[in-house]
Amino acid sequence: MKKLVSLLLVLMLSMAAFTALADEPVKIALTAPLTGNLSQYGESFQNSVTLACKQWNDKGGVLGRSVELVIEDTAGDPAQAATVAQKIVSDGSIFAEVGDFNTACCMAAQPIYAGSEMLQVSPTCSAVNFAVGSEWSFECLGTQDVQGEFMANWAYENGARKVAVLYLNSDWGISVDNGFAKAFKALGGEIVIEEPYNDGETDFSAALTKLRETEPDALYIACYYNDGAAINIQREVLNWDIPVYHPGTVYSTDFLSIGGTAVEGVLTNVGFYPDDPTPEAASFIAEYNTLYGKDPDYYGACAYDAFNVLMEAIERAGELDTHKVREALAATDAHQGVSGSITFDENGDARKSYIKLTIENNQYKVVR
Amino acid sequence: MTMIVQQLVNGITQGGLYALLAISYSLVYGVMSLVNFSTGSIYMLGAVGAWLLCNYLISDFLLSLVVGFAVGFALAFILEKIAFKSIRGISRISSLICTIGFSQMLNELTALLFGKATKGMPSFFSEKAFEVVGVTISWLQLILMLAVVVVLVTLQLFVYKTKMGLAVRTVAMDNTTAGLMGINVDRTISIAFSLAGACAGIAGVAGCIYYRSVSAYMGWIPGIKSFSAAVFGGLSSMPGAILGGYLMGIIENFGVQIFSTGYRDVISFVVMIIFLLFCPAGLLGRKKTTKV
Amino acid sequence: MLYAEEVSVRFGGLTAVDRVSLHIVPDEIHAIIGPNGAGKSTFFNAISGINKPSEGKITFQGKDITGLKQHQVAQMGIGRTFQNIKLFGSMTVMENVLCGYHQHVKSGLVHDLFGLPSQMREEAELLERCKELLARVELYDKRMMKANNLPYGEQRKLEIVRAMATGPKLLMLDEPAAGMNPSETEELKQFIRKINAEGLTILLIEHDVKMVMSLADTITVLDHGSKIAEGSADEVKNDEKVIEAYLGKSYRR
Fold this sequence. Notes:
The structure holds 3 protein chains of 3 kinds. By secondary structure, chain B is mainly α. Helices cover 74% and strands 4% of the residues of chain B. Chain B contains 11 helices and 4 strands. Chain B is globular, with a radius of gyration of 19 Å. The longest helix of chain C is centred in the middle third of the chain and has 20 residues, at 117-136. Chain C is globular. The chains are: A alpha/beta, B mainly alpha, C alpha/beta.
């Protein structure tokens, strides 16, 4: 009898233990710069991921368990990012990490996550050497190569065969130039000149005159919006009418206000366009707006997608096993995110879809 | 061939801005033996003045230039009164550092009040370019070139043909003797300094109209480059400074054509250094003999 | 006309001028002599506002001019030349003289920039006066030459003319005959006599003792910053202290 009672007791206890285990939420860490210079992006991350998490819990969580966010501030500081990563991996109850915003923090934390075999899904780290550096690291923004290929295809489709490239002489500018030139040559086009310019340059008339002499069909100009506006203004002063392609970095209302008539007809791209959203993006924007009283930005959209691809990978893996989830995540194919379609390549870099934009009457307009 | 002429046109337009700034350096250096590194900031504030005018009152080309003149003149006048007058005569290095400090202060203050973001200027004479044997010259370039020449010629007339100009030249040569001739040295320095400021202010307006943008940090690079241009042409000579400014613009543009935009500054500085090795006083500069 | 009372000028620990008092009588030619380093030029500089006196008071025509700025002293009516000529070398002869007239023109910046008719008239008049003055010293034909390119003697003359153009009542000449040959010196002497006769009071520093003796009405002798004698040429010539400190030695030499 005593034996039976104790057996029952053990059974009951283990039952209780089992149900407790089943009810325990899946913990996901979010690291972002919530204070400091980059805090506006950190806030955007926090808002978007909190929204995504709430949506998952509203429809019953993942694998039948609720999802809980553990939010950590890295302040954009790589040293703090490393400390935070240590804290997350040694916690023991956290399954995976989403973050960080800037490349330096992502890179600093990468070896710590890799060492503990924890997934690191950065929404926005587009540095070419990030995702490739660890099998546990993924990023959802897409590298310059992908964007370059996208723009090269577009220019080629529009009939350009000889393109002149002007690029900012920085790591970023060089990678944008390389990405575009490689893809455009692969299509059979010709890059007639690749001209760098230094940061802080204000006069582009000489460079433009030099480019013009090579008689290109189109220009690809890798720059931020300030330089972009200045270059187009001086192109207008030189009375040079030619199709101009820019990477998405010129996407800014300041580009329109400074450039004025000179940026009319300029072609660029963007991953997320709140004024003319896809159906997926429309509901995200609407819910974000109700919760926070403003429109989400592109980086927030990327963070939302990063969280969602991770959740879907867990669902597909069917159990909370990091190796299985990693495989499922790597197999993500054409996830229709709010920041565009996401497919991971063998390095863990997202191959994103982009929205083609042009400027008409000093307004951005989607090219379909 | 057309390319050469085209780069020449670009170079002259850009050189005109350098020339205006170079002459500003030269004027101040003449009367005070001081290199005024806040020239670039006055350039920037002239542009900010024009932007405020065009955005809030009236968008007008000539009026913008007038505002540039007024802002530059007034600012330099105040700076001279409150800052440089009191440090005049103490070691040149301290005065020099002072001008750099003022420059930083003006830039940051503008960034604070005006914002750090670049702002756009309206376009005057837009889309009206004409072609001469394959060379595109826009009206904007032509009008700016003319405006710069008019300012430079007026300044030369002032310095070489008027009583006040005579006073400026005598103070530049020997301010003690000038004083003994009954010339009010303080007042003359103040006027020369203010006029130098006015030149920088006009240059700023011309610059922001040409590049159609204004920002709190727009003055730094033109300020440094035109200083080099002034040294190149001869800091102690006003015609030299003008020549230096134009040559700098032209050399830069051909440097880009022949080498690369990335090397543009390197090329102009290398040309300048080689030249100064052989002619240390600059193209038209005089060697300043120190008085016994 | 000009009273200096107990004027001292010190540079750090060095006393260059030590309590010198001086009275210049209108219409006289007053000379200051003394060995090198006696403080003559420093005393000149103290009057014309280049060095501020450390002590003492200087009055000119009843007005205190101690410590005024150069241009203010000039405007009071004191003109001067320098021991080492200080012309505006790269300007023309004419422009040098025009500088001297500078203070007589009242028009300001606005006039200058826009060239109003009244100013044009005024400037035309000035040019005439400059030309007259240059004609007097036979520099008229060379008026468009750069001042640097004039022969030495003519540079001296030009400096005097430029000082005269400021319209002084007292003209201070710092070694005007330095570096001149005897005939040039003689010519200069005649010229100084002439302008003195026209009513210009002259204060003169000179090393040429012969010239000073024949020209000056009153002579002040400085040595080591202090006044050691004062009086007419004859009085000074026979003063023991002067012979000891200055004349004797130079005559013996």
